[in-house]
Amino acid sequence: QLVESGGGLVQTGGSLRLSCRASSRTDERYAMSWFRQAPGKEREFVAGVIWSTGRTYEGDSVRGRFTISKDSIRNMVYLQMNSLKPEETATYYCSIKIWPGVIFRSDTQDIWGRGTQVTVSS
Fold first, then answer.
1. Any residues with CB less than 8 A from the CB of 90 and at least 6 apart, and which?
2. If you ran DSSP here, which 8-state letter would residue 63 be given?
3. Residue 26: its pLDDT value, please?
4. Which of 85, 88, 96, 100 is nearest to 34 (CA)?
5. Which helix (H) or strand (E) holds 29?
6. How far apart are CA 100 and CA 30, in angstroms?
């Protein structure tokens, strides 16, 4: 129901744009978010967008460098990542939270994509 794309290998300081496509069966949603998980670490909130209002939230470590956006017509959400750092190498996941509530916790998400790998070389 969620398919991520756009990951790849990039040098330190480079940029990538991730995309997430939601299927038509996921029309009911409160928010869509991006999380990331590096090997041996917990899944971390990156950014989220409230679907009805377009209000966005970013994690402290990415604020000012990453931007989340949505296209309601195409049922897509994007993550523009600039000034990437090696420590941001991770699998990036798209998620949907169906009901209103806290969006930055991974255990409150209802639907997950399979993820896309982002590798930042030093």
1. 36, 37, 38, 41, 44, 117, 118
2. B
3. 61
4. 96
5. none
6. 6
Angle at 88 between CA 64 and CA 53, to 5 degrees: 45
Strand pairing category for 8-11 and 116-121:
parallel
Q: How far is C-alpha 55 from the geometric centre of its chain's CA atoms?
A: 15
SS (H, E, C) 4-25: EECCEEEECCCCEEEEEEECHH
**Residue in the structure block whose two tokens are 């790849």:** 8
| Alpha-carbon span 66 to 12, nearest angstrom | 14
Place of tokens 């996921």: 26
Question: What is the chain's pLDDT, residue by residue, as a tens digit (122 residues)?
Answer: 899 999 999 999 999 999 999 986 666 899 999 999 999 999 999 999 999 999 999 999 999 999 999 999 999 999 999 999 999 999 999 999 999 999 999 999 999 999 999 999 99
